Amino acid sequence: MLKFPRTIRLDPSDTFVFERAAEPGEWAVSGAFVFWNQNPATLGSKQRVALRSGFLGINSLGWSTLAIVTEASEAERQAMIERLATQLLEKFGAPDAEAARLAAEEEIAFAASLCDHPPQTLLAVQRNVEGGEIRERFRTLKARPVAADADRLHTHASAFTYHEVEGDVEPAEEVDLRGLIRTNAKTDRT
Predict the structure, then answer these.
(1) Positive or negative CA dihedral for 144, 148, 149, 151?
(2) Gap between the Cα atoms of 92 and 58, Å rounded
(3) Could you tell me the residue range of the domain that residue 161 belongs to?
(4) Three-class secondary structure of residue 94 per DSSP
């Protein structure tokens, strides 16, 4: 079996941090090409979040903070290539179908290269722009072992409390998701 990333939504944060959130379970690619030839200083705040930390869902062209390594068949891989090629032609101005297909094959191959991990491994991306080029760093997130006497109600309080980061780690921009949820909840009530 082949392995590719799929979008995953562990909480509702993607629906308000991105302009368009990917649907859970979509096949995903890095999506850095969306920002090619754009000045990050001119991007809106939600576009900057996508640039910094989003995987692109192939069907919706929405963003996901996390992706999950998932097994796929060759037929599914071919369908991913065809769908992404169509998107590149229709939405991103690829010069012709052949160029769109070649670019889609390259993006899908890169996405597969990120999945050299066991199925169900979570993937995260961190991007920045250095010298006019987009640099990407990918990390894997795995569940911490739960102590035998741990209170099981507390171990599942938040998806972000029981994961460890493997790979290169740099200081990251912090987002107060709870604060955003509280602010959003207050706005919805008024």
Answers:
(1) positive
(2) 13
(3) 2-189
(4) coil
